[in-house]
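To the wet lab folks,

You asked to see what we're planning to order before we commit. Fair enough. Below is the target structure as tokens, and below that is the sequence we designed to fit it. If anything looks off to you, flag it before the synthesis order goes out.
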């Protein structure tokens, strides 16, 4: 059925602006119902309830199938203003008819402050026309209406314009006539609220008919979106509110297009983009408020109510927390297997929603019905779609009252007749459950009375009970009064007392006589009178035992011992008291009937007495005495009667009512005793004294007239519906509570139509106002199905006052449910190992059952279960863990039997009855192995004290899971002390040393290597399969070997060069000045632990001179230069000669100082601190860059600069720090001298010659260098006197010879002084030689030389050949910034060559520039100092093009003497472009100079009479 939408007129113009569109979105609750459906009949009947409202209507209340239409408010025609004329932008004709003229008015209004003049032209087509054009004058605020006539001739769309002309310009109004069409409009998109998965959210939008015709529409929406209504009919201009329901099943971002089809044949379409986000909701459960424990939906929780009072409701609250951003709906699912009336756990909330970020308290109720029963139930909290759950295990114990007496017996001793005695009894409730109690005695008719006779004893309350004894005859009185307690077993109170008169003094009854009496009763001796027992004792037919009780004489010692009084349960003692012809012991006396009902009687006529029958079952004569009260309406005649042994006698019960319309009820009391007990003189033995027997008779009647309404009983009755669960042939007990809430006494009696399966005690009685009556019920259920037991109570003898009670019971079956099935399969298990599998059993009964698993003994080593025996509570689900331990490679089938029986049955040999279930356990033992995916793992080079990780992949290709344990053995190789490294801990750590590897799987174990030494580490990883004994492992198989090399970052100086003021220092001399050879040796060593205090550059000192953690200190000497000269620049080429990346840094003292606040700095500074501040503040020493990073093999150039700012020697301690490596203190030293001052820089005061073998005929010449750091040439003079002294001491043999002791040193240059060391003995020679600098200071240098015997030392001498000890690099590696030309080698090493030999080497000059042409020229320098040495370079000069290289041949011919040769060959480089420019500038300068020499300028102003005021004459 299509739903029609009523419509109102709606102008299409109002829908032209997007701002006026119907994009209203209204959210609502997720509850909905569909009330209409679409069909293809095209019916126009409507089921809508129409409400006239605006677009911004409130949330709809109709069902989803109902269209809600809103009439759009008529919008004004859109107008425009042209030069002060306000006019409509267009005129539109709709719904026109062919041949019929339609007129619309066009209004022009002058909103300007001056009069406007305008003209218009007629439309261009003949279908629109108006009045003949004329001039229009409009004053301020005036309007003019121009009629426009439209006359259509055919069905089509017409379009024209009406133009107006003004002085300012021209404007037009559009004239349009459109055909009726179908057109619907909806918002382009709709954003729905966030929604949880499987939940629903809603949004509303407006669908508008902006066309001219009624339109049917049909929505096509993809899942999970639902659009309601899906079909409908919209009148023109009407608006329908559409509801979109979003119900996602997957957490995604949805952006889906929904289509609305409409039109004549449904061919037109409008779309809306539906956008929504679905998220998974999360519900956290907190059980304990003090200790919050949150869990996800898959967790299991336990809510323990603990002991709770029976019949009362205990409440616990759990907290539901929603941490997500969407609603978290949930519903509660309870266990449906429970009988509804047996359900003690309830949740009042069936479903709910937790708002985002909020929390909710969920109440759980526990109302136990059975005392001592531990109840278990399960409750599930399920989210939408039941995708996951929170399982709550609810446990609680039904706690009943714990009422007790402080005494079990009240002894009144003896009193005289006519007097009374009172004693007090304390009853206490030691439980938290209130207790209703009632003493089963009639205080009005008995010689004993207890106050209160009934009432409520609160939890942990004590109450004082007053017991009164008022005897009526001089006899022995004894009564065992039952105290009935709701939800508790009855208590029994013994009350004894003896009455004496002047003529009768019976023996006094004491509590010990009651103890003896019970034992005699169990032995059957109470059927004999005391005098007979005395005779039998004298005749020794009876003897006394150790307790003083009588027993038959036993001749045979093999006979069992005499019977003791048994421990009788209170319920059994109460029900088996002989009332229903069922007794535990033989009765002594009985009365029939026990209940006498006189029914309706009259006060004017005494009813007939009711006959009673008394029977004596003993072998002695018994006297029965009735305790008649004077005010009682009931009396037994005769009051005292004797009954011979084994005889019967009769009596009459008389009823004498005194008041009409009243209920009478009483419990009469009589005491029977052996007649010999009348006097104490008849008792010869104290143990033969018996108490009296109390006979109770209930009598009732009423005097209501026939027409009189009986009193209405007002009462409350607490009736549990179910009997407690019992097994087969067991008795179930239940208590009921009846309270008299009225002001009148009423009687009750159990109707005969009540169920005979129920024993109801007491079945008859009366209840005083405000008193309470506790009923005890018992039944022995038969059959598993539930059986109903109807009980009917009648009150006040009136058939109208009936209370029907329905109770149910059944014989609980011994039934356990194997929820995991009857077959348990183990996965294949490794032989020697074990696997476990859970197995679930459920107790589906209301009984607490004991269980035990049994299987053959030979299978006990293969399978085991925990727990193997125990107790399972009613409705409890218990998970047993089976363990399978195969001993060989085979398949196993084990038959296990689960036995169950009632847990309340006392443990014996074989519990009965029992139930059993067979379980087949199937498993297979197989063998397996664990291997490694890679047999060898190489960590490579790892920085010492750093970590590196790799994964060790373990493979298990077998069909069984394997428990494993890994072992690691460590060995180290390299230069180390084996005993020292043996105690090192294992440097390889594994995140998992043992575990379980599933079958056909692999596992990655992360290995973390952390070396502590620069050695090679080799680890052997072994694997052992664990057996079932966790302390024992199988064979250790090698898995893989792991190799790692511990390294330190190694930095080295591979090249050095100097420029600026230090440009004259040779590379060899510069290498010594900077101690680079020693520095490289230090950098190759392992760092000390002190150096690794700070592994990276750190500001750690508060002093201006920081403390250093390295023992290594070196001098970095920059030489000397005059003040004001250009800085001495040294370029160092650093190389990472190690195998790991490194970070290096030069740290000035300020770089190691912690920045302090101004107030914390010291103001008193010493000389060293002031000197360092001056050096650092003036940047006398600078390093660029000061830090960097180098990859292995990478090189970097560092520029060290010494600025000559102040005269003197500058010192600065600079720390060279290699991160995670060495830390070396470099003492930067630089000397600045005055201009013109002489200064020779001595690198050291000690010089050691190369060792020479003794007996060498022609020792080699050796070189000692002197460097002139001043700005003027200096002359040096070496004093030879010390050399002569050494010669005179060595047989006039010249040990030391100086070949050029005199010479000059040019500024900034180095001079070589040649020496010959010729030892004659294998020892060390030393000589201190003064070196004088003329015009300057002198220095004393110690020269040392070592002579050795080559025949003694042989090849062990490291200096057995004559070599040069120069360690400077040969290849040119360092390129000065801006240098475009460089040599392939910066040093040519010719090695050892014979005298007079010629040696050549090939080098290259490379032009790295792409544009510059260079010109070179060689300067051989001081190569001619040594005689007969020929040094040549070919070619000596030339040109090198860009990008090319030129080869050179360097040839040297040695002299006849052995010598160390060191020459400085200088290749001078000139850029051709610069040289050409220089030559051009030089020529221009010379030309200008020549011109100036021949030209002159006359500057006189008046020469030879000529007047030239502005210029001179040349």
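Sequence we intend to order:
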């Amino acid at each position: 059925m299509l739903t029609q939408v009523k419509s109102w007129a709606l102008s299409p113009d109002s829908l032209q602006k997007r701002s006026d569109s119907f994009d209203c979105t209204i959210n609502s609750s997720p509850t909905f119902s569909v009330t209409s459906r679409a069909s293809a009949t095209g019916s126009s009947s409507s089921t809508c309830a129409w409400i006239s409202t605006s677009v911004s209507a409130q949330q709809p209340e109709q069902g989803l199938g109902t269209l809600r239409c809103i009439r759009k408010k008529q919008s004004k025609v859109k107008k425009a203003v042209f030069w002060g004329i306000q006019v409509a932008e267009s005129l539109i004709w709709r719904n026109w008819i062919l041949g019929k003229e339609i007129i619309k008015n066009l209004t022009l209004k002058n909103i300007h402050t001056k009069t406007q003049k305008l003209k218009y032209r007629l439309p261009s087509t003949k279908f629109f026309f108006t009045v003949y054009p004329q001039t229009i004058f409009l004053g301020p605020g005036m309007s003019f209406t121009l009629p426009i006539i439209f006359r259509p001739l055919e069905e089509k769309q017409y379009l024209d314009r009406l133009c107006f002309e003004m002085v300012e310009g021209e404007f037009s109004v559009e004239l349009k006539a459109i055909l009726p069409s179908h057109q619907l409009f909806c918002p382009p998109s709709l954003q729905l609220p966030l929604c949880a998965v499987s939940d629903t959210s809603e949004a509303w939008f407006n669908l508008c008919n902006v066309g001219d015709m009624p339109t049917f529409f049909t929505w096509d929406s993809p899942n999970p979106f639902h659009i309601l209504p899906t079909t409908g009919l919209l009148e023109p201009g009407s608006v329908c509110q559409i509801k979109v329901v979003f119900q996602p099943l997957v957490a995604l971002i949805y952006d889906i297009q929904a289509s609305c089809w409409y039109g004549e044949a449904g061919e037109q379409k409008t779309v809306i983009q539906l956008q929504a986000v679905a998220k998974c909701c999360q519900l956290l459960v907190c059980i304990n408020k003090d200790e919050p424990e949150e869990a996800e939906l898959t967790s299991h929780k336990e809510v323990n109510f603990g002991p709770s009072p029976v019949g009362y409701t205990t409440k616990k609250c759990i907290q539901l927390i929603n941490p997500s951003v969407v609603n978290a709906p949930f519903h509660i699912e309870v266990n449906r297997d429970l009988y509804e009336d047996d359900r003690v756990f309830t949740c009042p909330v069936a479903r709910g929603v937790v708002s985002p970020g909020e929390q909710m308290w969920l109440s759980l109720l526990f109302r136990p019905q059975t005392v001592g029963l531990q109840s278990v139930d399960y409750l599930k909290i399920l989210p939408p779609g039941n995708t996951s759950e929170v399982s709550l295990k609810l446990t609680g114990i039904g706690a009943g009252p714990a009422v007790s007496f402080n005494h079990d017996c009240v002894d009144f001793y003896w009193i005289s007749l006519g007097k009374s005695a009172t004693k007090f009894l304390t009853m206490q409730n030691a439980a938290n459950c209130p207790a209703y109690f009632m003493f089963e005695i009639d205080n009005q008719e008995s010689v004993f009375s207890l106050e209160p006779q009934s009432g409520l004893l609160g939890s942990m309350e004590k109450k004082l009970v007053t017991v009164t004894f008022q005897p009526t005859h001089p006899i022995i009185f004894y009564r065992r009064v039952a105290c009935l307690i709701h939800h508790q077993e009855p208590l029994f109170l013994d009350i004894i007392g003896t009455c004496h008169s002047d003529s009768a003094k019976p023996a006094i009854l004491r509590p010990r006589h009651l103890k003896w009496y019970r034992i005699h009763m169990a032995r059957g001796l109470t059927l004999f009178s005391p005098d007979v027992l005395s005779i039998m004792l004298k005749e020794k037919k009876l003897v006394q035992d150790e307790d003083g009780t009588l027993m038959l004489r036993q001749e045979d010692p093999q006979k069992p011992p005499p019977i003791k009084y048994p421990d009788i349960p209170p319920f059994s003692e109460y029900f088996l008291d002989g009332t229903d012809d069922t007794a535990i012991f033989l009765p002594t006396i009985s009365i029939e009937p026990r209940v006498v009902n006189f029914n309706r009687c009259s006060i004017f006529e005494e009813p007939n007495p009711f006959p009673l029958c008394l029977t004596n079952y003993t072998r002695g004569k018994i006297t029965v005495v009735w305790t008649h009260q004077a005010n009682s309406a009931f009396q037994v005649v005769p009051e005292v009667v004797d009954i011979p042994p084994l005889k019967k006698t009769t009596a009459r019960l008389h009823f004498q009512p005194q008041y009409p319309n009243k209920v009478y009820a009483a419990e009469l009391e009589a005491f029977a005793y052996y007649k010999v007990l009348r006097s104490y003189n008849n008792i010869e033995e104290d143990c033969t004294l018996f108490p009296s027997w109390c006979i109770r008779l209930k009598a009732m009647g009423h005097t209501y007239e026939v027409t009189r309404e009986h009193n209405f009983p007002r009462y409350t009755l607490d009736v549990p519906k179910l009997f407690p669960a019992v097994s087969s042939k067991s008795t179930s007990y239940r208590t009921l509570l009846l309270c008299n809430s009225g002001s009148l006494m009423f009687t009750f009696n159990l109707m005969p139509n009540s169920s005979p399966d129920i024993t109801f005690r007491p079945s008859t009685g009366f209840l005083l106002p405000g008193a309470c009556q506790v009923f005890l019920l018992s039944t022995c259920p038969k059959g598993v199905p539930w059986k109903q037991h109807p009980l009917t109570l009648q009150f006040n003898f009136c058939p109208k006052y009936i209370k029907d009670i329905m109770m149910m019971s059944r014989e609980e079956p011994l039934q356990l449910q194997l929820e995991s099935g009857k077959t348990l399969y183990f996965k294949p298990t490794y032989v020697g190992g074990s696997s476990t599998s859970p197995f679930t059993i459920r107790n589906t009964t209301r009984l607490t059952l004991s269980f035990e698993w049994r299987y053959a003994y030979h299978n006990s080593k293969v399978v085991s279960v925990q727990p193997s025996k125990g107790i399972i509570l009613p409705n409890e689900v218990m998970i047993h863990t089976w363990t399978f331990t195969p001993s060989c490679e085979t398949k196993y089938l084990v038959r296990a039997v689960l036995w169950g029986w009632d847990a309340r049955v006392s443990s014996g040999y074989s519990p009965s009855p029992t139930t059993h279930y067979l379980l087949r356990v199937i498993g297979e033992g197989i063998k397996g192995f664990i291997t490694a995916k890679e047999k060898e793992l190489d960590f490579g080079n790892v920085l010492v004290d750093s970590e590196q990780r790799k994964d060790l992949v373990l493979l298990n290709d077998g069909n069984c899971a394997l428990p494993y344990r890994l072992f690691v053995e460590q060995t180290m190789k390299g230069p180390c002390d084996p005993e020292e490294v043996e105690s090192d801990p294992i440097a390889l750590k594994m995140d998992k040393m043992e575990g379980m590897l599933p079958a056909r799987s692999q596992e990655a174990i992360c290995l973390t290597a952390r070396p502590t030494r620069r050695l090679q580490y080799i680890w052997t990883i072994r694997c052992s399969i664990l057996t079932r004994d966790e302390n024992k492992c199988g064979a250790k198989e090698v898995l893989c070997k792991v190799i790692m090399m511990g390294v330190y970052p190694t930095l080295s100086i591979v090249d050095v060069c100097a420029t600026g003021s230090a440009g004259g220092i040779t590379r060899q001399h510069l290498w010594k000045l900077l101690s680079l050879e020693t520095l490289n040796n230090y950098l190759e060593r392992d760092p000390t632990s002190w150096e690794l205090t700070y592994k990276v550059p750190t500001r750690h000192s508060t002093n201006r001179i920081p403390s250093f953690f390295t023992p290594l200190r070196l001098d970095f000497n920059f030489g000397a230069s005059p003040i004001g000269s250009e800085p001495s620049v040294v370029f160092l080429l650093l190389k990472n000669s190690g195998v790991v990346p490194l970070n290096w840094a030069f740290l000035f003292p300020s770089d190691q100082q912690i920045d302090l606040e101004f107030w914390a700095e010291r103001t008193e500074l010493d000389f060293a601190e002031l000197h360092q501040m001056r050096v650092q503040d003036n940047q006398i020493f600078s390093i660029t860059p000061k830090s960097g990073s180098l990859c292995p093999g990478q090189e970097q150039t560092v520029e060290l600069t010494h600025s000559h700012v102040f005269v003197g020697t500058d010192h600065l301690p600079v720390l060279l720090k290699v991160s995670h490596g060495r830390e070396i203190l470099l003492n930067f030293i630089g000397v600045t001298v005055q201009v013109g001052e002489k200064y020779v820089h001595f690198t050291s005061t000690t010089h050691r010659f190369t060792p020479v073998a003794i007996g060498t005929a022609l020792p080699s010449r050796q070189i000692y260098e002197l460097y002139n750091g001043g700005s003027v040439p200096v002359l040096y003079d070496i004093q030879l006197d010390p050399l002569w002294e050494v010669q005179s001491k060595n047989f006039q043999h010249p040990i030391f010879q100086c070949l050029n002791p005199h010479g000059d040193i040019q500024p900034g240059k180095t001079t070589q002084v040649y020496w010959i060391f010729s030892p004659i003995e294998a020892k060390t020679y030393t000589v201190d030689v003064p070196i004088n600098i003329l015009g300057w200071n002198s220095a004393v240098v110690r020269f040392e030389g070592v002579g050795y015997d080559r025949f003694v030392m042989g090849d062990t001498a490291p200096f057995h050949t004559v070599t040069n000890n120069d360690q400077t690099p040969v290849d040119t590696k360092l390129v000065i910034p801006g240098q475009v030309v460089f040599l392939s080698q910066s040093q040519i090493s010719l090695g050892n060559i014979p005298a007079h030999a010629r040696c050549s080497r090939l080098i290259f000059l490379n032009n790295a520039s792409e544009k510059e042409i260079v010109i070179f020229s060689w300067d051989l320098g001081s190569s001619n100092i040594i005689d007969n040495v020929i040094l040549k370079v070919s070619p000596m000069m030339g040109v090198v093009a860009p990008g090319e290289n030129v080869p050179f041949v360097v040839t040297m011919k040695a002299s006849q003497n052995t010598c160390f040769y060191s020459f400085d060959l200088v290749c001078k480089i000139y850029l051709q472009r610069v040289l050409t420019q220089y030559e051009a500038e030089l020529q221009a300068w010379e030309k200008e100079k020549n011109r100036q020499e021949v030209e002159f300028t006359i500057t006189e102003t008046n020469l030879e009479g000529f007047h030239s005021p502005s210029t001179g004459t040349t």
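Structural context that might help your review: The CA atoms of residues 1141 and 1191 lie 4 Å apart. DSSP finds ten helices and 106 strands in the chain.

Thanks,
Computational group
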